[in-house]
Known about the structure:
Structural class: alpha/beta
Order of helices and strands: EHEHEEHHH
Number of helices: 5
CATH architecture: 3-Layer(aba) Sandwich
Helix content: 40-55%
Number of strands: 4
CATH class: Alpha Beta
Largest sheet: 4 strands, mixed
Number of domains: 1
Strand content: 15-25%
Distance between the termini: 20 Å
CATH topology: Collagenase (Catalytic Domain)
Shape: globular
CATH superfamily: Metalloproteases ("zincins"), catalytic domain
Amino acid sequence: MITFNNQDVKFTLKEKALLKKWIVSTIEKKKRKVGELNFIFCPDEHLLGINKQYLNHDTYTDIITFDYSKEDVNLPVSGDIFISIDRVKENAEKFGKTFENELHRVLIHGTLHLLGYADKTKSAKAEMTKQEDLALKAFAKT
């Protein structure tokens, strides 16, 4: 089950059904099952608080993913994905993308983390970007 929620922010997600279908398809292409995925849209300050409390990072970020399946391929993919709407807006402007395009990239980025993809090293980040691009191309075809 996939849910989209707001925490301390007014935000309306467009194309929810289509996005859910895309996320499920991305997970199933990796031979995994969908468990419980919660996407929580929030402002910068909310995500900064989570970053400080749980990760000991005093920095703004666009996304934090909590993996409840612990990348165990035998378990359904489950987790909470917190997304800063403020960061998505700023990054869209910074990278010359539409808000929707940047939001879709962040949505699938969190999903890919739950599938075991990382982005801490240069090579891992390159693979993550490749997987994001593949998923975004698949979404564009829907």
